[in-house]
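We include this case.
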Amino acid sequence: MKKNRQYEVLEWASLFLEKHHREKRVAELLLQHHLQVSRSEFFVTMRDSVPEEVIARYEKDIVKHAKQGVPIQHLIGYESFYGRTFHVNQHVLIPRPETEELVQHVIQYTNSKIVDKIPTIVDAGTGSGIIAITLALELKNASIYATDISNKALATARENSQHYHTNIRFYQGDFLIPLIEQHMQVDIIVSNPPYISRDEVSELPDTVKNFDPELALFADENGLAAYKQILSQSKQVLRKNGCIAFEIGHEQGEAVTFLVKKTYPNSDINVLKDINGKDRILFAKL
C-alpha cells in the first residue's frame, strides 16, 4: 500500500473487509488500536501519515480477520465489558453484551435483598473472570468465588482480577465441585455455562466456532448437560432462600425451567428477555 495517510489506510481496510463479508467497523477499531489513540483523537488525525511499520502490522491483522476469521478481540488482546476492558485469548470465551444483562440482574437482586451478613456468590465456569470481577467491583460487600475446569482460563481470570485488584477466590474444578469438596456454601450461584448443542455448530460464525474454546461453547444433551450438572451439584452448595442465575440459549427457557423445577419444586422462576427481546436469563429464587 503506497498511500499512507490515516484516512487512506482506513479506506483500504474497510473495502478489503467488505470484500470478504466482514464488518467494516473492524477497520476503524483495529487502526485505533495500532495507533494507540482514542476514538476522538482518531478522527482529529485523519489526514496524518501512518508510519510504515504500523501499516505493516495493521495490514497483517486485517488480513487475518478477513480471511481466517480471527476475532478482533484476539488481535488486540482485550474486550470491553460493563464499562471495563478485560484481557481475552483463545482459552476463554469472548464476552458478549447479553452477559452484561445477566450481571446487571444479579447486582440488582443482591442490592435489593436485605441480608444480615455478607452475601456470598460463586461464578461457576468463570472463563476470563468477567462476571466474578464485575460483581466484585460493583458489590463491594460481597464475597466472591469463581471456578473453572480449565487452568489456562483461570490464569486469564486471575490476570484480569489482579488488574482490577479484586479479592476473588479462584478454584480449579468442574463447576461447583471445588466448593463441595471444601464444604462451602453460597447465597447466589451465577453461571454462563456452555449451552450450545453440537448440532448447531454449522450455524455459528467462523469467528466463534473456530476460535472460542469448545469447552465454553458446547454442551451435550441438546445443550442442557451443564445446567443439569450445576443444578445437581447446587444441592450441596446453595443455602436456603438462595438464588440461581443462568444465562441460557434463546430457545432454552422452557427446558431449563423444567430442570430447575425438577431440582427445586418450590422455586420461583423468571425467564427474562435480553435487549433483543430473546429469552436469555433464568432467575430461580428458592
About this structure: The CA atoms of residues 231 and 262 lie 10 Å apart.
